[in-house]
Amino acid sequence: MSATAVPRQDTNTLVVGAGQAGLATSYWLVQRGVEHRILEQRPALGGAWQDRWDSFYLNTPNFSVDLPGSPYAGTAPDGFLTREATIGFFRGYAKDIQAPVELDTEVTRITPTDAGFAVQTGQGTWAARNVVLASGAFQRPRIPAAAVGISPDVLQLHSHDYRNPGQLPDGAVLVVGTGQSGGQITEDLLDAGRTVHLSVSTCPEAPRRYRGQDIFHWIMQVNVHGPEYGINALLVDQLPSPAGRFMCNPLLSGTGGGHSVRLRELGRRGVRLHGRFEGVDDGVPVFTDDLPQRLAAVEAGFGQRFKKLFDAYINAAGIDAPEAETAEPDGWQPASSDARLDLHGEGITSIIWSTGYALDFSMLDLPLLDEWNYPRHTKGVTVHPGLYAVGLPWLTRHISATLVGVGPDAEYVTDHLASRG
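^ that's the sequence the OP posted. Answer follows.
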């Protein structure tokens, strides 16, 4: 691996990104004898996991830490990796497969040529017959445009840049968004004794374990084996709309051995809950006035989206699983809150925007993207010959962007790529 400047080099295939998608692709390219290089903009391996906060744990259990040629073989399959252990896993995997990575090499332009592609980087220009886009789903932190209307006296961070409570000034914190990052960062702040306000989105709550297994066990099984039993709901062609590729994941955490993040429980612990962030009016954040209904919808999400699916799969596959647990109703009710939040009056000195990421393929010098900036493709084979994509959410199925899901997609793409000769 190197970070040396290259004025111009030729290779058969360039892989853009050395995260899980890029490394899985490299593994399969080696198996097929395809000469290639991986271009990674970061100075060190570890992918987007390096952008997580200090107390972060992987949300999926160890049994799903499964990249091509390296299935999990440890003694704690139901445990969860820390941030540092996750980064270490990727660095070890890259070493094991001898991934040909060029670090500190940001791709700035990909232009089609008669022979394939010219790929411009901060370290020079490459020529390649094929290019695989493997930069993942965590590309550009997304912050609402209305954030510019908030006083500069209030520190604003995206979850991408949050590391620990000590990085924030004294005072209360507003966390916007209740995806997995928002829920877990809220818990991190609570554990540090901070006062937290939380703007609630619509990401569903879910049990960490269901019918005797971690919930991700059933997600994996339905993704991989569901079609064998006619259960195809987690395949991409079953999405009601292409926008469904960006739906948020269940509110779960790997911290403390793994648990569900429950919004009412956070409220019981003192978190001030608010509706969805709507904008800023004269410096004051404004939220929807529908918190009770929003909490009910969040709690109903698992039953509507996953429970029936898991039960149908268990029945169809004839799996001997315990009966479904009955969740005890939580009677806690949020205090009524105004739709406007006086940051100064509430002592709020920081805002953490847990509002997700946007795809960024602005380096592509060809018309390939749909209205969601998602490459037009079929199973990772884009509409432009020689250009491929791996590791995006719902590339072929629900788990395409996960460690256990990226390998099969990378294998299919490299099969197609190798067949081009």
